[in-house]
């Protein structure tokens, strides 16, 4: 059955971000192979029921096409015009969704498995980051940055060299046997056409939405298990990188690293006191455990392979330094 299609009474099981999904929708995700550290149910709702739900509710806006509301029972309603609307339960264990009639299954899934699921993750006690991560020699390297900073483009350069995508846009970390571990996201990446053409020989993929030229490019490959996180690189602003003349990686102080990580949280809408307290504790632990560096480089397509090689060299040095201080 086509991913994104709906079948009454369906019960599909998947793993993503370390979480088990129990879905009424067929999704482009690895099939369920082991229990996650949490479970989220994905259910199909009714457009009429959603209309009645928000009939007397004042919706807030954060952009021309994104609207949301926190309801009296603790649930959160979110909607992206022409893509879909979602109701996330107060405990984050259930997401009810209604795809927009004009949305492709692929673009709807981008928002279901990224934006909408971030509400469920935060309500379940997790802190997703706005980051893209690749796997190198069995370890994760994460790139932080706002939309347009070049996270996915840099990751695409790694993929073209034979490395594996771990996640694009939403990164969830969890403490495991290997320390802080990065969990796999959906097997797809979002790129502008010239980047897709440069690294994958594809002029276009599946349109992401009406407000961007980015396309969704799916991959056959996927990772079912997490890998240890080795380093985080915070990409400099596009303005800074337009002035950069060489690749530079500046280690950040604990304070600056903390501010960078908090700035790159994935969800800015849920800001209750418990969430903010948890965010401070988890971010403090993260920056005291994992090196965080500011990455600057000339913002030109032909420079990306040099950036990749500089990062690989830096990661090797970080790994060697960690081996020297590791207790025997």
How would you explain this protein's 3D organization?
The chain has 328 residues and is of the alpha+beta class. It has two domains: 12-123, no CATH class; 129-325, P-loop containing nucleotide triphosphate hydrolases (Rossmann fold), CATH 3.40.50.300. The protein contains eight helices and 20 strands. The strands form three sheets. Strands 9, 10, 11, 12, 13, 14, 18, 19 and 20 form a nine-stranded mixed beta sheet that branches. The protein has an eight-stranded mixed beta sheet with strand order 1-2-3-8-7-6-5-4, covered by helices on one side. The radius of gyration is 20 Å and the shape is globular.
Number of helices: 8
CATH class of the largest domain: Alpha Beta
Based on Cα principal axes, name the global outline: globular
| Low-pLDDT segments, ≥5 res | 1-6
Question: What do we call the CATH homologous superfamily of the largest domain?
Answer: P-loop containing nucleotide triphosphate hydrolases
Report on the biggest sheet: 9 strands, mixed
CATH architecture of the largest domain: 3-Layer(aba) Sandwich
Q: Beta-sheet strand percentage?
A: 25-35%
Number of domains: 2
Helical content stands at: 25-40%
Structural class per helix/strand content?
alpha+beta
SSE order, as H and E? EEEHEEEEEHEEHEEEEEHEEEHEHHEH
What is the typical, i.e. mean, pLDDT?
Answer: 90
Distance between the termini: 53 Å
Number of strands: 20
CATH fold type of the largest domain:
Rossmann fold
- Radius of gyration (CA) equals 20 Å
């Amino acid at each position: 059955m086509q991913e994104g299609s709906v079948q009454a009474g369906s019960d599909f099981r998947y793993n993503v971000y370390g979480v088990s999904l129990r879905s009424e929708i067929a999704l482009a995700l690895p099939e369920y192979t082991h229990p996650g550290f949490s479970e989220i149910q994905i259910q199909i709702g009714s457009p009429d029921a959603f209309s009645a739900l928000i009939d007397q509710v004042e919706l807030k806006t954060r952009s021309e096409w994104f609207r949301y509301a926190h309801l009296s029972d603790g649930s959160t309603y979110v909607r992206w015009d022409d893509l879909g609307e979602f109701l996330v339960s107060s405990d984050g264990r259930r997401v009810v969704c209604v795809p927009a009639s004009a949305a492709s299954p692929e673009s709807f899934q981008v928002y279901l498995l990224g934006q909408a699921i971030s509400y469920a993750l935060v309500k379940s006690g997790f802190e997703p980051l706005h980051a893209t991560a690749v796997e190198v020699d069995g370890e994760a390297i994460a790139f932080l940055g706002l939309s347009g900073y070049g996270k996915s483009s840099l990751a695409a350069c790694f993929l073209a060299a034979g490395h594996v995508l771990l996640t694009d846009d939403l990164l969830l970390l969890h403490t495991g046997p290997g320390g802080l571990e990065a969990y796999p996201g959906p097997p797809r990446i979002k790129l502008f056409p010239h980047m897709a053409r440069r690294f994958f020989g594809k002029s276009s993929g599946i349109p992401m939405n009406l407000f961007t030229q980015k396309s969704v490019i799916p991959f056959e490959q996927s990772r079912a298990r997490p890998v240890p996180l080795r380093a985080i690189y915070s990409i400099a602003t596009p303005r800074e990188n337009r002035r950069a003349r060489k690749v530079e990686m500046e280690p950040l102080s604990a304070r600056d690293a903390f501010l960078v990580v908090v700035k790159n949280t994935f969800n800015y809408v849920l800001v209750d006191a418990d969430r903010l307290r948890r965010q401070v504790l988890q971010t403090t632990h993260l920056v005291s455990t994992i090196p965080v560096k500011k990455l600057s480089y000339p913002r030109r397509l032909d420079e990306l392979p040099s950036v990749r090689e500089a990062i690989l060299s830096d990661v090797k040095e970080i790994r060697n330094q960690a081996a020297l201080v590791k207790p025997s």
